[in-house]
Amino acid sequence: MFLSRLQRYDANFAPLIYAGSDMFLMPSLYEPCGLNQMYSLKYGTVPIVRETGGLADSVEQADGKTGAGTGVLFRDYDSTGLAWAMNRGMDLYEKPKIWRKIIRNGMTRDYSWERQGAVYIDLYRRLGGQS
Questions:
Q1: Helix, strand, coil share (%) of the chain residues, nearest 5
Q2: Helix axes of 79-93 and 96-108: crossing angle, nearest 10 degrees
Q3: Which helix (H) or strand (E) is 68 found in, with range?
């Protein structure tokens, strides 16, 4: 049964992969939105992503001292940038208290349309001169 699930996309199995992983690597050259990093955040998987588009908008650089942030971002789209990010992720992982805080930060973020819709409505009202 497990092998048959790997041979095709299975919407019921995908969350188990996220939830069973420690880190999610998404080194995209270009990503206009990206949902996968948001899924990983919700399931407690720390994203390691290239700082572009929606990835940069939804993942906050983790601080190894305070535990603030939700993941690891890197700029350079090359092997050096990727290696830096992966090493950074491993460094954070080796600090259990900090790592758990980063996981909790990600799991509590709200990327719902309800919240985002309210942001857009507020923006349109302000642009229209209504407060």
A1: 50, 10, 40
A2: 110
A3: none
Burial class (CB in 10 A: 0-12, 13-18, 19+), 17: middle
Residue pair 58/94 in contact (Cβ under 8 Å)? The answer is: no
Q: Is the dihedral of CA 73, 75, 78, 79 positive or negative?
A: negative
Strands 23-26 and 46-50: parallel
DSSP string, 70-85: SBEEE---SHHHHHHH
Q: Tell me: the pLDDT tens digits for 61-95?
A: 999 999 999 999 999 999 999 999 999 999 999 99
**Distance (Å, whole) CA 37 – CA 26:** 8
